[in-house]
Amino acid sequence: MWLGIATFNLACVVMLGAFGAHGLHGSLEQMAWWHTATDYFFYHALGLFGLAILVRIDDFPIKLPFILLQMGILIFCGSLYLMALGAPHILGAITPIGGLLFILGWLITAYYAIKKGA
Q1: In this structure, are residues 110 and 85 in contact, taking their beta carbons and an 8 Å threshold?
Q2: What is the pTM for the complete model shown?
Q3: Buried-exposed string 85-110: b where 16+ CB fall within 10 A, e elsewhere
Q4: Rounded-to-integer distance, Cα 115 and Cα 29, Å
Q5: Model confidence over 67-115: pLDDT tens digits?
Q6: Which terminus of the chain has a smaller tally of CB atoms within 10 A, N or C?
Q7: Which of 13, 8, 66 is nearest to 39 (CA)?
């Protein structure tokens, strides 16, 4: 399941990146939001892919970090994508919540790694 979600995210980010490069015609601000969302989506999708592999080879506890990172993608990247497509700028108020979820996901991963002696 984890690997499937991670690879689905990677396919989605490629499609969204392509749309942003070839199909989105917005203001510089909108293009910057799209670019930022795609960068963060890609980095964290790769992170999820790494976690999915880690659980297979080392039985590493990834459930909580994986969920936090996935929610971070949805909130952080999703809010930026929506604003780039014309949603009200007030939606940007939830973007930092997604960033906080990213941070928590990676900190919990670090905690588990240290606890495991990895």
Answers
A1: no
A2: 0.92
A3: eeeeeeeeeebeebeebbebbbebbe
A4: 42
A5: 999 999 999 999 999 999 999 999 999 999 999 999 999 999 999 999 9
A6: N
A7: 13
